[in-house]
Specification:
Elements lengths: L2 H15 L8 H28 L39
């Protein structure tokens, strides 16, 4: 027998006792909420453990100038603000 069939047989008995002004989630609602809370707690604990294992070191930006090349003429950029392009060799 399916659970839905069993519940539909019990609904008429509960309809006499059901006060529509005092409907609460009951024990099942509390158990579902508690299970969700425990699940979220375990997920947060696992996430903190995994984030603690991350060893992230940011790579230097390749477009940025090196720290010691501020006074060298090679680090100068063309007047348009874009780096100058090298001319491609022609085939002859």
């Amino acid at each position: 027998m399916y659970a839905t069939q069993a519940l539909t047989q019990l609904v008429p008995f509960a309809a006499d006792e059901l006060d529509k002004n005092k409907v609460t989630p009951g024990v099942l609602g509390f158990l579902v909420f508690a299970a969700l809370a425990v699940g979220v707690w375990f997920l947060m604990k696992s996430m903190n453990r995994h984030m603690g294992r991350v060893d992230f070191e940011e790579a230097p930006d390749p477009a940025a100038e090196p720290a010691g090349s501020a006074g060298k003429p090679e680090a100068a950029v063309s007047g348009s603000g874009a780096p100058a392009k090298a001319a491609a060799p022609e085939k002859g």
